[in-house]
Structure to design on (361 residues):
């Protein structure tokens, strides 16, 4: 018998398919009924306007409906999601995918937004920011000064 | 998307807009749950008199310096609003949730707008001139967003940017608290609402 958590760990983030919704750290709670026919999943959105949020909720529902008669996907806003909830394994996956993972933990107020530890392509620590915003709400655009390749940085949030 | 000087900047403004839209949706959904209807009704089927946004936020895009100064003024206001809502235990839990999320998004917006205002103000003669013009044009619209806290946020940035203002006591426009807006809001709403009003309830 697969658990709901097993199913959730196969649901990818639509923008960063190398990460599952569990890797991302957005699954707050999973409640299965005693007869294992109903499940309630509580998700916390990553960013207020992230278009992936609704896609994720739909994908989670679809994946669970294969194993449960009744699936309820709920949203919990507080406490807000933070990159601190990503596992170390998830950060390694990001690095392998060519996205520099968030460096260090979040402290509020968010005055220090952090910098990638190294270029995900060549490993050089000599990197610079090109733009504070990138192709998705979670990313900034950086460049490696050694290998000259631009790369995405998953922002501390 | 936004007629910014570079593609990266277009993307930045698009990202900031997306965050603001998401925050607005969170608040509108909560309001709709309270008074009935849904977020779309509140966004698309109210007329300008029913909107309470600060006048500053409805002013049209212009010169890039103008857009950045307006963003700076708005970001400084949002910072105060979200901090108050997030810290108050008596505030509705969903609204507090939106605020807690928005605090971090706002930090990135502020980082962006304040960096640009300093770079432009303390840049070339031309960029300084245009950024000073933007401050002069926007200062009379600060009334609904300004507070001691707000001044304390923006004054050091303007000083670093070598920009001047007529000061805290200078005259300022007000009106949105009573539904009085600039002529610009009508055009904004017309563009935003026309599709939803032509095809009510449409989805895709």
């Amino acid at each position: 018998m697969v658990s709901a958590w097993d199913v959730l760990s196969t649901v990818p983030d639509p923008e960063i398919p190398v990460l599952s919704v569990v890797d991302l750290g957005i699954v707050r709670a999973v409640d299965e009924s005693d007869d294992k026919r109903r499940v309630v999943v509580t998700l916390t959105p990553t960013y207020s306007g992230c278009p992936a949020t609704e896609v994720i909720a739909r994908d989670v529902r679809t994946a669970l409906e294969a194993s449960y008669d009744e699936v309820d996907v709920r949203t919990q806003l507080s406490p807000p999601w933070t990159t601190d909830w990503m596992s170390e394994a998830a950060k390694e996956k990001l690095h392998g995918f060519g996205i520099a993972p968030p460096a260090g933990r979040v402290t509020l107020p968010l005055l220090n937004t952090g910098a990638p530890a190294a270029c995900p392509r060549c490993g050089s620590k000599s990197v610079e920011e090109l733009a504070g915003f990138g192709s998705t709400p979670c990313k900034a655009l950086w460049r490696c000064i050694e290998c000259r390749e631009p790369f995405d940085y998953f922002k501390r949030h | 998307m936004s007629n910014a000087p570079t593609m990266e900047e277009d993307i930045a403004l698009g990202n900031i807009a997306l965050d603001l839209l998401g925050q607005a949706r969170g608040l509108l959904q909560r309001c709709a749950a309270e008074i009935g209807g849904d977020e779309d009704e509140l966004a698309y089927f109210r007329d300008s008199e029913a909107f309470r946004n600060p006048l500053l936020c409805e002013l049209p895009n212009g010169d890039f310096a103008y857009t950045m100064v307006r963003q700076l003024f708005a970001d400084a206001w949002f910072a105060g609003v979200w901090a108050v809502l997030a810290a108050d235990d008596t505030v509705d839990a969903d609204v507090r949730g939106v605020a807690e999320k928005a605090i971090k998004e706002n930090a990135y917006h502020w980082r962006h707008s304040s960096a640009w205002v300093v770079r432009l103000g303390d840049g070339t003669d031309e960029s300084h001139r245009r950024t000073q013009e933007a401050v002069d044009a926007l200062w009379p619209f600060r009334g609904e967003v300004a507070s001691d806290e707000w001044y304390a946020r923006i004054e050091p940035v303007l000083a670093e940017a070598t920009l001047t203002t007529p000061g805290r006591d200078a005259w300022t426009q007000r009106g949105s608290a009573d539904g009085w807006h600039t002529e610009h809001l009508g055009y904004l709403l017309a563009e935003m609402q026309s599709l939803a009003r032509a095809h009510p309830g449409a989805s895709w």
